[in-house]
Amino acid sequence: MVYLKNILVTTDLSRYSLAAMEHAASFGLLYASKIFLLHVTSSPEGVETAEKALEQFAGRHLSPDLRLVRVVRSGSPAEEIRRFAEEESVDLIAMATHGRTGLQHILLGSVAEKVVRLSEIPVLTIKPTPLRDSILRDEDVETELHIR
């Protein structure tokens, strides 16, 4: 049986990352898990600013009832996520995707993809509802299938 004692949720402080938090919170309630909310900043000098921003983000969007530990690290996001997950014996990593495609995906890459490749810990990737709705609409399917 899988027991999710420690869950890691990554955030870039965008509303898209809340989709991962929603799923993690559900698992957290089921398993009485500790949830780590991790934000990775690219510059070591920006850690203090990032900590304040993470605190504001959590205060604005997340329930104070969650067993939540806020963490800020600096460095390469995919590598820091993997490293933190291993250090804290995380049982599941939950990440929202931005749904980038085409040239933007090629140029920017995908942190979620890199984490999936690097991590030996299971990774749950969630495409936020606004992205799902903008990528695939009912009328697109109907048009493609020549239903209309």
Please report which band the strand proportion falls in: under 5%, 5-15%, 15-25%, 25-35%, 35-45% or over 45%: 15-25%
Helix content estimate: 40-55%
* Overall pLDDT score: 84
Count up the helices. 7
| Main β-sheet description | 5 strands, parallel
What's the CATH H-level homologous superfamily?
Answer: HUPs
User: How are strands sequenced across the largest beta sheet?
Assistant: 3-2-1-4-5
Secondary structure: number of strands: 5
CATH architecture: 3-Layer(aba) Sandwich
Regions with little confidence, pLDDT below 50 for 5+ residues: 144-148
| H/E element sequence | EHEHEHEHHEHH
| Tally of separate domains | 1
**Shape, please?**
globular
CATH topology: Rossmann fold
List its salient traits:
single chain; 148 residues; alpha/beta; Rossmann fold; 7 helices
Description:
With 148 residues, this protein is of the alpha/beta class. It has one domain: Rossmann fold, CATH 3.40.50. Helix content is 47%, strand content 20%. The protein has 7 helices and 5 strands. The chain has a 5-stranded parallel beta sheet with strand order 3-2-1-4-5, with helices on both faces. Strand 2, helix 2 and strand 3 form a beta-alpha-beta unit. The longest helix is centred in the middle third of the chain and has 15 residues. The chain is globular.
